[in-house]
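Sorry to interrupt, but I need a hand with the structure work. Could you add the entry underneath, on a fresh line?
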Amino acid sequence: MSLWSLHQAASQVGGEILGDGSVVPGSLSMDTRTLQPGACFVALRAERDGHEFALQAVEKGATVLLVDHPLDTDCPQLVVPDTLVALQRWGQARLNAVRPKTVFGITGSVGKTSTKELLAAAVGGWKTPGNRNNTLGLPEALATLPEGLGAAVLEMGMSTPGEIQRLTEIAPLDAGLITLVGTAHMENFHEGQRGIALAKGELVAGLNRGGIWAHLATDPWCRWIAEQPWARHAEALPIGEGEAFGWEAIESLGAAGGAFRLRTPAGTVPMRLQLPGEHQVRNAALAAALAIRLGFAPERVALGLGTVVPESGRGRLHRLSGDGCLLDETYNASPDSILACAGALLQLPGGEAIAVLGSMRELGAEASRIHRETGAALKKLGLSRLWVFGDFASDYAEGFGLRSAAFPNFKALRDDAAGLSAIPAGARILVKGSRYWRAERVVDWFLQSSAPSPQSSVPHPRSSGH
Protein backbone atom coordinates (compact mmCIF):
# COMPACT_ATOMS: atom_id res chain seq x y z
CA MET A 1 0.00 0.00 0.00
CA SER A 2 1.47 3.35 -1.03
CA LEU A 3 0.24 6.78 -0.04
CA TRP A 4 -3.46 7.33 -0.66
CA SER A 5 -4.94 8.89 -3.75
CA LEU A 6 -7.74 11.39 -3.39
CA HIS A 7 -10.21 8.56 -4.21
CA GLN A 8 -8.80 6.40 -1.39
CA ALA A 9 -8.85 9.26 1.09
CA ALA A 10 -12.45 10.07 0.20
CA SER A 11 -13.43 6.47 0.89
CA GLN A 12 -12.16 6.96 4.46
CA VAL A 13 -13.34 10.49 5.27
CA GLY A 14 -16.32 10.92 2.95
CA GLY A 15 -17.00 13.98 0.85
CA GLU A 16 -17.25 14.77 -2.84
CA ILE A 17 -14.32 14.73 -5.26
CA LEU A 18 -14.04 17.53 -7.81
CA GLY A 19 -11.45 16.92 -10.50
CA ASP A 20 -8.88 14.15 -10.83
CA GLY A 21 -9.34 11.70 -7.95
CA SER A 22 -6.21 9.71 -8.85
CA VAL A 23 -3.87 12.44 -7.57
CA VAL A 24 -1.69 11.24 -4.65
CA PRO A 25 -0.60 14.01 -2.27
CA GLY A 26 2.81 13.55 -0.71
CA SER A 27 1.89 15.39 2.49
CA LEU A 28 -0.82 17.46 4.14
CA SER A 29 -0.37 21.11 5.09
CA MET A 30 -2.44 23.74 6.87
CA ASP A 31 0.05 26.57 6.35
CA THR A 32 1.02 28.06 3.00
CA ARG A 33 4.28 29.34 4.54
CA THR A 34 5.60 25.80 4.99
CA LEU A 35 3.66 23.98 2.27
CA GLN A 36 5.72 21.66 0.10
CA PRO A 37 4.97 21.09 -3.60
CA GLY A 38 2.70 18.09 -4.10
CA ALA A 39 0.87 18.59 -0.78
CA CYS A 40 -2.81 18.56 0.01
CA PHE A 41 -3.74 21.96 1.47
CA VAL A 42 -6.25 21.67 4.32
CA ALA A 43 -8.42 24.78 4.55
CA LEU A 44 -9.31 25.06 8.23
CA ARG A 45 -11.65 27.61 9.75
CA ALA A 46 -9.75 29.06 12.71
CA GLU A 47 -8.75 32.62 13.62
CA ARG A 48 -8.48 33.08 9.86
CA ASP A 49 -10.36 31.11 7.22
CA GLY A 50 -7.95 28.81 5.43
CA HIS A 51 -10.11 28.93 2.32
CA GLU A 52 -8.82 32.48 1.77
CA PHE A 53 -5.34 31.02 1.24
CA ALA A 54 -6.29 28.05 -0.93
CA LEU A 55 -5.42 29.68 -4.27
CA GLN A 56 -2.11 30.84 -2.83
CA ALA A 57 -1.48 27.21 -1.81
CA VAL A 58 -2.12 26.11 -5.41
CA GLU A 59 0.38 28.72 -6.65
CA LYS A 60 2.93 27.26 -4.21
CA GLY A 61 2.46 23.75 -5.59
CA ALA A 62 -0.48 22.18 -3.75
CA THR A 63 -1.96 19.42 -5.93
CA VAL A 64 -5.08 18.77 -3.81
CA LEU A 65 -7.39 20.92 -1.69
CA LEU A 66 -9.43 19.74 1.32
CA VAL A 67 -12.27 22.28 1.57
CA ASP A 68 -15.78 22.64 2.94
CA HIS A 69 -17.19 24.23 -0.25
CA PRO A 70 -16.12 24.15 -3.91
CA LEU A 71 -13.54 26.73 -4.97
CA ASP A 72 -13.05 28.25 -8.41
CA THR A 73 -9.87 26.41 -9.38
CA ASP A 74 -8.83 23.51 -11.60
CA CYS A 75 -6.93 21.96 -8.69
CA PRO A 76 -8.58 18.68 -7.55
CA GLN A 77 -10.70 19.16 -4.42
CA LEU A 78 -12.19 16.97 -1.72
CA VAL A 79 -15.26 18.80 -0.45
CA VAL A 80 -16.36 17.77 3.06
CA PRO A 81 -18.78 19.20 5.64
CA ASP A 82 -15.99 19.94 8.16
CA THR A 83 -12.31 20.04 7.20
CA LEU A 84 -11.06 19.56 10.78
CA VAL A 85 -13.14 16.41 11.22
CA ALA A 86 -11.97 15.15 7.83
CA LEU A 87 -8.32 15.86 8.69
CA GLN A 88 -8.58 13.90 11.93
CA ARG A 89 -10.39 11.00 10.25
CA TRP A 90 -7.75 10.89 7.51
CA GLY A 91 -4.91 10.60 10.03
CA GLN A 92 -6.78 8.07 12.15
CA ALA A 93 -7.70 5.90 9.16
CA ARG A 94 -4.17 5.96 7.76
CA LEU A 95 -2.72 4.82 11.09
CA ASN A 96 -5.29 2.02 11.28
CA ALA A 97 -4.47 0.90 7.75
CA VAL A 98 -0.67 0.79 8.05
CA ARG A 99 -0.34 0.44 11.82
CA PRO A 100 3.24 -0.23 12.99
CA LYS A 101 3.95 -3.10 15.36
CA THR A 102 4.32 -0.71 18.30
CA VAL A 103 2.86 2.79 18.61
CA PHE A 104 4.37 4.91 21.39
CA GLY A 105 2.94 8.11 22.83
CA ILE A 106 4.95 10.71 24.75
CA THR A 107 3.70 13.60 26.86
CA GLY A 108 4.93 15.63 29.83
CA SER A 109 5.35 19.20 31.02
CA VAL A 110 8.99 19.33 29.89
CA GLY A 111 11.22 17.37 27.55
CA LYS A 112 8.57 15.87 25.25
CA THR A 113 10.31 16.62 21.98
CA SER A 114 13.81 15.64 23.12
CA THR A 115 12.47 12.39 24.57
CA LYS A 116 10.54 11.72 21.36
CA GLU A 117 13.78 12.07 19.41
CA LEU A 118 15.61 9.79 21.83
CA LEU A 119 12.94 7.09 21.88
CA ALA A 120 12.53 7.10 18.10
CA ALA A 121 16.29 6.68 17.71
CA ALA A 122 16.37 3.95 20.36
CA VAL A 123 13.72 1.82 18.61
CA GLY A 124 14.55 2.80 15.02
CA GLY A 125 11.06 4.19 14.60
CA TRP A 126 9.21 6.89 12.67
CA LYS A 127 8.43 10.01 14.69
CA THR A 128 6.05 12.91 14.42
CA PRO A 129 8.04 15.72 12.79
CA GLY A 130 8.78 18.96 14.61
CA ASN A 131 6.21 19.81 17.23
CA ARG A 132 3.15 18.34 15.51
CA ASN A 133 1.70 17.23 18.80
CA ASN A 134 -1.85 18.63 18.90
CA THR A 135 -5.23 17.74 17.41
CA LEU A 136 -4.25 19.43 14.15
CA GLY A 137 -0.59 18.56 13.74
CA LEU A 138 -0.75 14.91 14.78
CA PRO A 139 -3.40 13.82 12.23
CA GLU A 140 -1.70 16.00 9.60
CA ALA A 141 1.48 13.97 10.12
CA LEU A 142 -0.28 10.61 10.34
CA ALA A 143 -2.19 11.16 7.08
CA THR A 144 0.91 10.19 5.09
CA LEU A 145 2.37 7.68 7.55
CA PRO A 146 4.67 5.23 5.70
CA GLU A 147 3.76 1.56 5.63
CA GLY A 148 5.88 -1.27 6.94
CA LEU A 149 7.07 0.46 10.10
CA GLY A 150 8.17 -1.46 13.18
CA ALA A 151 7.50 1.47 15.51
CA ALA A 152 6.07 4.97 15.54
CA VAL A 153 6.70 7.54 18.27
CA LEU A 154 4.01 10.20 18.63
CA GLU A 155 4.42 13.36 20.69
CA MET A 156 1.19 14.41 22.41
CA GLY A 157 0.88 17.90 23.86
CA MET A 158 -1.93 19.70 25.58
CA SER A 159 -2.88 23.06 27.04
CA THR A 160 -6.42 22.20 28.20
CA PRO A 161 -8.22 19.08 29.51
CA GLY A 162 -9.39 16.54 26.95
CA GLU A 163 -6.81 17.22 24.25
CA ILE A 164 -4.68 14.14 24.92
CA GLN A 165 -7.82 12.03 25.19
CA ARG A 166 -8.75 13.13 21.68
CA LEU A 167 -5.22 12.39 20.45
CA THR A 168 -5.37 8.84 21.81
CA GLU A 169 -8.71 8.39 20.06
CA ILE A 170 -7.05 9.37 16.80
CA ALA A 171 -3.98 7.26 17.61
CA PRO A 172 -4.54 4.41 20.13
CA LEU A 173 -1.27 3.59 21.89
CA ASP A 174 0.58 0.38 22.74
CA ALA A 175 3.06 2.09 25.06
CA GLY A 176 3.54 5.50 26.61
CA LEU A 177 5.90 7.76 28.50
CA ILE A 178 5.29 10.77 30.74
CA THR A 179 8.45 12.84 31.19
CA LEU A 180 7.18 14.92 34.12
CA VAL A 181 3.99 16.40 35.52
CA GLY A 182 4.93 20.04 36.04
CA THR A 183 3.20 23.41 36.07
CA ALA A 184 3.07 24.39 32.38
CA HIS A 185 -0.37 25.76 31.33
CA MET A 186 -1.38 26.05 35.00
CA GLU A 187 -3.80 28.91 34.28
CA ASN A 188 -6.02 26.52 32.28
CA PHE A 189 -6.52 24.12 35.22
CA HIS A 190 -8.63 25.22 38.16
CA GLU A 191 -7.48 22.14 40.10
CA GLY A 192 -3.85 23.20 39.74
CA GLN A 193 -1.27 20.47 39.36
CA ARG A 194 -3.84 17.75 40.02
CA GLY A 195 -5.69 18.97 36.94
CA ILE A 196 -2.48 18.84 34.91
CA ALA A 197 -1.87 15.29 36.17
CA LEU A 198 -5.38 14.30 35.10
CA ALA A 199 -4.77 15.76 31.64
CA LYS A 200 -1.39 14.04 31.26
CA GLY A 201 -2.98 10.86 32.60
CA GLU A 202 -5.28 10.83 29.59
CA LEU A 203 -2.34 9.26 27.76
CA VAL A 204 -2.35 6.35 30.21
CA ALA A 205 -6.13 6.05 30.03
CA GLY A 206 -5.79 5.86 26.24
CA LEU A 207 -3.32 2.97 26.25
CA ASN A 208 -4.52 -0.33 24.83
CA ARG A 209 -5.20 -2.93 27.51
CA GLY A 210 -1.93 -4.45 28.70
CA GLY A 211 0.09 -1.45 27.52
CA ILE A 212 3.15 -0.18 29.39
CA TRP A 213 4.04 3.38 30.31
CA ALA A 214 7.25 4.75 31.80
CA HIS A 215 7.73 7.60 34.27
CA LEU A 216 10.25 8.94 36.76
CA ALA A 217 9.98 7.10 40.05
CA THR A 218 10.44 10.42 41.88
CA ASP A 219 7.45 12.10 40.22
CA PRO A 220 4.64 12.00 42.83
CA TRP A 221 1.95 12.89 40.31
CA CYS A 222 2.92 10.02 38.02
CA ARG A 223 2.73 7.73 41.03
CA TRP A 224 -0.72 9.18 41.64
CA ILE A 225 -1.75 8.49 38.03
CA ALA A 226 -0.60 4.87 38.37
CA GLU A 227 -2.92 4.41 41.38
CA GLN A 228 -6.07 5.66 39.64
CA PRO A 229 -8.79 3.14 38.66
CA TRP A 230 -8.72 4.34 35.05
CA ALA A 231 -4.99 3.49 34.82
CA ARG A 232 -5.13 -0.08 36.09
CA HIS A 233 -5.49 -1.64 32.64
CA ALA A 234 -1.89 -0.61 31.90
CA GLU A 235 1.45 -1.41 33.53
CA ALA A 236 3.38 1.48 35.08
CA LEU A 237 7.17 1.29 34.74
CA PRO A 238 8.86 3.61 37.27
CA ILE A 239 12.44 4.54 36.39
CA GLY A 240 14.95 5.61 39.02
CA GLU A 241 16.57 4.81 42.34
CA GLY A 242 15.28 1.65 43.99
CA GLU A 243 13.61 0.40 40.80
CA ALA A 244 14.58 -2.38 38.39
CA PHE A 245 15.39 0.26 35.75
CA GLY A 246 17.41 3.37 36.59
CA TRP A 247 20.56 5.30 35.78
CA GLU A 248 23.91 5.74 37.49
CA ALA A 249 27.51 6.88 36.97
CA ILE A 250 26.56 10.11 35.18
CA GLU A 251 29.50 11.80 33.48
CA SER A 252 29.36 15.26 31.93
CA LEU A 253 31.27 15.49 28.65
CA GLY A 254 30.77 19.25 28.41
CA ALA A 255 29.85 20.40 24.91
CA ALA A 256 30.06 16.79 23.69
CA GLY A 257 27.10 15.69 25.83
CA GLY A 258 27.14 13.12 28.60
CA ALA A 259 27.45 9.47 29.52
CA PHE A 260 25.76 7.17 32.03
CA ARG A 261 24.98 3.56 32.76
CA LEU A 262 21.43 2.30 32.45
CA ARG A 263 20.50 -0.23 35.13
CA THR A 264 18.25 -3.05 33.91
CA PRO A 265 17.12 -6.37 35.43
CA ALA A 266 19.76 -8.05 33.24
CA GLY A 267 22.65 -5.77 34.24
CA THR A 268 23.92 -2.32 33.28
CA VAL A 269 24.28 -0.91 29.77
CA PRO A 270 26.70 1.97 28.95
CA MET A 271 25.07 4.93 27.20
CA ARG A 272 26.55 8.02 25.63
CA LEU A 273 24.61 11.11 24.55
CA GLN A 274 25.34 14.10 22.37
CA LEU A 275 22.78 16.12 24.36
CA PRO A 276 24.27 18.09 27.29
CA GLY A 277 22.70 18.14 30.75
CA GLU A 278 21.58 15.74 33.44
CA HIS A 279 17.96 16.32 32.43
CA GLN A 280 18.76 14.70 29.08
CA VAL A 281 20.18 11.70 30.95
CA ARG A 282 16.80 11.34 32.65
CA ASN A 283 15.00 11.63 29.32
CA ALA A 284 17.31 9.06 27.76
CA ALA A 285 16.91 6.68 30.70
CA LEU A 286 13.13 6.84 30.38
CA ALA A 287 13.30 6.15 26.64
CA ALA A 288 15.89 3.39 26.91
CA ALA A 289 14.17 1.60 29.78
CA LEU A 290 10.82 1.55 28.00
CA ALA A 291 12.42 0.31 24.78
CA ILE A 292 14.36 -2.47 26.52
CA ARG A 293 11.32 -3.48 28.59
CA LEU A 294 9.44 -3.95 25.31
CA GLY A 295 12.13 -6.22 23.90
CA PHE A 296 14.38 -3.92 21.89
CA ALA A 297 18.03 -4.98 22.07
CA PRO A 298 20.03 -2.95 24.63
CA GLU A 299 22.99 -2.52 22.25
CA ARG A 300 20.69 -1.19 19.50
CA VAL A 301 19.02 1.14 21.98
CA ALA A 302 22.38 2.53 23.14
CA LEU A 303 23.56 3.01 19.55
CA GLY A 304 20.38 4.88 18.65
CA LEU A 305 20.52 7.21 21.65
CA GLY A 306 24.05 8.23 20.72
CA THR A 307 22.97 9.51 17.31
CA VAL A 308 20.57 12.20 18.56
CA VAL A 309 21.92 15.75 18.23
CA PRO A 310 20.47 18.98 19.64
CA GLU A 311 17.97 20.87 17.51
CA SER A 312 17.75 24.64 17.24
CA GLY A 313 16.09 26.03 20.37
CA ARG A 314 16.37 22.70 22.18
CA GLY A 315 19.86 22.46 23.62
CA ARG A 316 22.00 23.58 20.71
CA LEU A 317 25.33 24.97 21.85
CA HIS A 318 27.19 27.88 20.19
CA ARG A 319 30.69 29.21 20.73
CA LEU A 320 31.02 32.93 21.29
CA SER A 321 34.03 35.20 21.14
CA GLY A 322 36.20 35.36 24.24
CA ASP A 323 35.84 31.60 24.81
CA GLY A 324 32.20 32.03 25.82
CA CYS A 325 29.34 29.74 24.89
CA LEU A 326 25.58 30.02 24.53
CA LEU A 327 23.07 27.26 25.29
CA ASP A 328 20.04 27.83 23.06
CA GLU A 329 16.94 26.52 24.85
CA THR A 330 14.58 29.12 23.42
CA TYR A 331 11.77 26.89 22.22
CA ASN A 332 9.70 27.31 25.38
CA ALA A 333 10.00 27.65 29.15
CA SER A 334 8.59 26.40 32.44
CA PRO A 335 10.11 26.46 35.95
CA ASP A 336 11.20 22.83 35.71
CA SER A 337 12.80 23.21 32.28
CA ILE A 338 14.58 26.46 33.20
CA LEU A 339 16.23 24.90 36.23
CA ALA A 340 17.13 21.74 34.33
CA CYS A 341 18.79 23.75 31.55
CA ALA A 342 20.58 25.97 34.08
CA GLY A 343 22.00 22.80 35.61
CA ALA A 344 23.21 21.75 32.16
CA LEU A 345 24.86 25.15 31.68
CA LEU A 346 26.77 24.79 34.94
CA GLN A 347 28.26 21.52 33.69
CA LEU A 348 29.85 23.27 30.72
CA PRO A 349 33.37 24.72 30.92
CA GLY A 350 33.83 28.47 30.68
CA GLY A 351 33.42 31.77 32.47
CA GLU A 352 30.69 32.92 34.81
CA ALA A 353 27.29 31.30 34.33
CA ILE A 354 24.42 33.64 33.51
CA ALA A 355 20.93 33.40 32.08
CA VAL A 356 18.93 35.61 29.74
CA LEU A 357 15.28 34.69 30.16
CA GLY A 358 11.96 35.75 28.74
CA SER A 359 8.98 35.54 31.08
CA MET A 360 6.89 32.39 31.37
CA ARG A 361 3.25 32.27 30.26
CA GLU A 362 0.03 30.47 31.27
CA LEU A 363 0.89 30.24 34.97
CA GLY A 364 -2.34 31.82 36.17
CA ALA A 365 -2.76 33.71 39.43
CA GLU A 366 0.49 32.28 40.82
CA ALA A 367 2.65 33.66 38.01
CA SER A 368 4.38 36.35 40.09
CA ARG A 369 5.21 33.91 42.88
CA ILE A 370 6.46 31.26 40.45
CA HIS A 371 8.75 33.76 38.73
CA ARG A 372 10.17 34.92 42.07
CA GLU A 373 10.76 31.33 43.18
CA THR A 374 12.41 30.47 39.86
CA GLY A 375 14.71 33.48 40.17
CA ALA A 376 15.66 32.47 43.72
CA ALA A 377 16.25 28.88 42.63
CA LEU A 378 18.60 30.03 39.86
CA LYS A 379 20.67 32.01 42.36
CA LYS A 380 20.77 29.02 44.74
CA LEU A 381 21.78 26.73 41.87
CA GLY A 382 24.87 28.82 41.26
CA LEU A 383 24.17 31.26 38.44
CA SER A 384 26.06 34.49 38.97
CA ARG A 385 23.89 36.94 37.03
CA LEU A 386 20.44 37.16 35.46
CA TRP A 387 19.02 39.29 32.63
CA VAL A 388 15.24 39.02 32.19
CA PHE A 389 12.56 40.60 30.01
CA GLY A 390 8.79 40.47 29.70
CA ASP A 391 5.77 41.06 31.87
CA PHE A 392 7.13 39.21 34.94
CA ALA A 393 10.75 40.32 34.62
CA SER A 394 10.67 42.29 37.87
CA ASP A 395 9.48 39.17 39.75
CA TYR A 396 12.32 37.10 38.27
CA ALA A 397 14.78 39.80 39.35
CA GLU A 398 13.29 40.17 42.82
CA GLY A 399 13.71 36.46 43.43
CA PHE A 400 17.28 36.41 42.13
CA GLY A 401 18.33 39.52 44.03
CA LEU A 402 21.56 41.39 43.39
CA ARG A 403 23.21 41.16 39.97
CA SER A 404 19.95 40.86 38.07
CA ALA A 405 18.55 43.26 35.46
CA ALA A 406 14.91 43.45 34.33
CA PHE A 407 13.53 44.91 31.09
CA PRO A 408 9.93 45.23 29.87
CA ASN A 409 10.57 43.80 26.40
CA PHE A 410 13.25 42.60 24.00
CA LYS A 411 13.84 46.04 22.50
CA ALA A 412 14.74 47.46 25.90
CA LEU A 413 16.93 44.45 26.66
CA ARG A 414 18.73 44.92 23.35
CA ASP A 415 19.12 48.70 23.39
CA ASP A 416 19.70 49.59 27.05
CA ALA A 417 23.34 50.02 28.03
CA ALA A 418 22.71 47.65 30.94
CA GLY A 419 21.17 45.06 28.62
CA LEU A 420 22.71 42.52 26.29
CA SER A 421 25.77 44.63 25.55
CA ALA A 422 26.67 44.56 29.25
CA ILE A 423 27.00 40.77 29.34
CA PRO A 424 30.71 39.98 29.79
CA ALA A 425 32.73 38.22 27.13
CA GLY A 426 33.63 34.64 27.95
CA ALA A 427 30.43 33.94 29.89
CA ARG A 428 28.40 30.75 29.72
CA ILE A 429 24.93 31.95 28.72
CA LEU A 430 21.58 30.17 28.94
CA VAL A 431 18.86 31.72 26.75
CA LYS A 432 15.29 30.60 27.34
CA GLY A 433 11.72 31.92 27.44
CA SER A 434 8.13 31.17 26.55
CA ARG A 435 7.34 31.21 22.84
CA TYR A 436 5.45 34.49 23.18
CA TRP A 437 8.68 36.37 23.96
CA ARG A 438 10.65 34.97 20.98
CA ALA A 439 13.83 34.56 22.96
CA GLU A 440 15.57 33.30 19.82
CA ARG A 441 16.10 36.99 19.04
CA VAL A 442 18.59 37.03 21.91
CA VAL A 443 20.46 34.13 20.32
CA ASP A 444 20.49 35.91 16.96
CA TRP A 445 21.87 39.06 18.59
CA PHE A 446 24.76 37.16 20.15
CA LEU A 447 25.55 35.18 17.02
CA GLN A 448 25.60 38.31 14.89
CA SER A 449 27.64 40.41 17.29
CA SER A 450 29.77 37.93 19.21
CA ALA A 451 30.28 34.74 17.23
CA PRO A 452 33.72 34.26 15.73
CA SER A 453 32.30 33.03 12.44
CA PRO A 454 28.94 32.19 10.79
CA GLN A 455 29.64 28.51 11.51
CA SER A 456 29.50 28.93 15.27
CA SER A 457 27.78 25.77 16.37
CA VAL A 458 29.89 23.62 18.65
CA PRO A 459 30.57 20.30 16.89
CA HIS A 460 28.99 17.28 18.53
CA PRO A 461 31.21 14.24 18.04
CA ARG A 462 29.41 11.00 17.39
CA SER A 463 29.18 8.46 20.15
CA SER A 464 32.00 5.95 20.42
CA GLY A 465 29.57 3.17 19.66
CA HIS A 466 28.48 4.59 16.32
Notes: Residues 100 and 149 are 5 Å apart (CA to CA).
